[in-house]
Amino acid sequence: MLFKNLETERLLLKNICTEDREFIFDHFSHPKVTEHLYDEEPLSDISGADEIINVYLEPEPRTQHRWILITKDGEKIGTCGFHCWYMRQGICDVGYDLRPEYEGKGYMREALETIIQFAFEEMNIKKINACIYINNDRSSNLAKRLGFKFSGETENCLFREKEYLHNIYSLENSKVSE
What is the pLDDT of residue 176? Predict the structure, then answer.
């Protein structure tokens, strides 16, 4: 199995599973958590949590993976992971979200540093992209602090009858020669 649980100084990054159903529902129905997610409506019933979990439980190899961020005292505080993994090209997208009460404490940076290292060392990733809504300054600033470089803009699909412009940031694996 490629994807495994990971650990940082303050966090456990646990593979998503069916036991996370209530957390996933609560998390992805929270208005602040979903504020800048312009690809899906916030969850309105528990079946939406089941759908999310089932995507990440598909057999490997799969093109996406998600970890639940859990503090060492047992609080589930967010998720992070990869999607749109193009294995042959060694490119994937990163996604992440955090409960608002845990923002600004360095948890997401700690988690992302760990999964980026995992991607470069164990997934053979050459480049990680982050597609970030242009008004999501917190996320853009985090990506920049992690070494992601602005690489362009794209119009997102129509969502709630409006187009949402996103900035694309990329992080190259410096240990891989093209």
Answer: 67
